[in-house]
Specification:
This protein is an all-alpha fold and 185 residues long. It has one domain. The chain is 78% helix and 0% strand. It has four helices and no strands. Helix 1 runs antiparallel to helix 2. The longest helix is centred in the middle third of the chain and has 43 residues.
């Protein structure tokens, strides 16, 4: 591990760089897979002809929450790149510790904001399903209006929102772990 000048990486920097790469890749892949599944479920609901959602705010919050997953996954890839830069033996090319901490804090902010927006979307989705379930009980089974009933596509959007919250949680955990590893030295 000796460079051209005989300089070796300190063990703490090697450990931090390895964690950035490992946790970054795990964060990227988990968020992308869960984000794609959540997006497919959300699109499935949007294409369903009997979808009863009339709330534009539910669609808006959920869409922004889903987009934020992919921003967070991109930020996870930035962790990988930062880990590669930290692995360099040239201390002039290596990022400063404050740059790593700043990147981690931005990652935490992205995940928290995405999670908050997605939770707002979940609140609207669940409120809409709750009111529809109350109408369903009130009107009984004598109606021909199928939008009053909760169907599989409605449950798919709830599953989509839960998956989106989970993806944001993974991004948040990755960032918090990296902050812990970086500050532990």
């Amino acid at each position: 591990m000796t460079g051209e000048l005989g300089y070796s990486l300190p063990p703490a920097i090697r450990r931090i760089a390895a964690n950035f790469k490992r946790v970054g890749w795990a964060s990227v892949w988990i968020q992308v897979v869960v984000g794609v599944i959540a997006s497919i479920l959300f699109i499935f609901n949007a294409l369903e002809p009997n979808a009863g959602f009339t709330s534009a705010s539910a669609d808006l919050f959920t869409t922004i929450g889903l987009l934020t997953i992919f921003i967070s996954a991109f930020w996870g890839f930035r962790y990988v790149l930062l880990g590669r830069k930290l692995s360099t033996t040239n201390p002039d090319l290596r990022p400063k510790p404050k740059d790593a901490i700043r990147a981690i804090r931005i990652g935490i902010s992205i995940s928290l904001i995405g999670m908050l927006i997605t939770i707002f979307g979940a609140e609207v989705v669940i409120a809409d399903l709750w009111t529809r379930s109350l109408r369903q009980v009130a009107i009984g089974v004598t109606t021909q209006d199928s939008s009053a009933f909760i169907n599989a596509a409605d449950i798919a959007v709830v599953f989509s929102v839960i998956n989106a919250i989970f993806a944001h949680y993974i991004g948040l955990c990755a960032s918090i772990w990296l902050e812990y590893v970086t500050n532990r030295q």
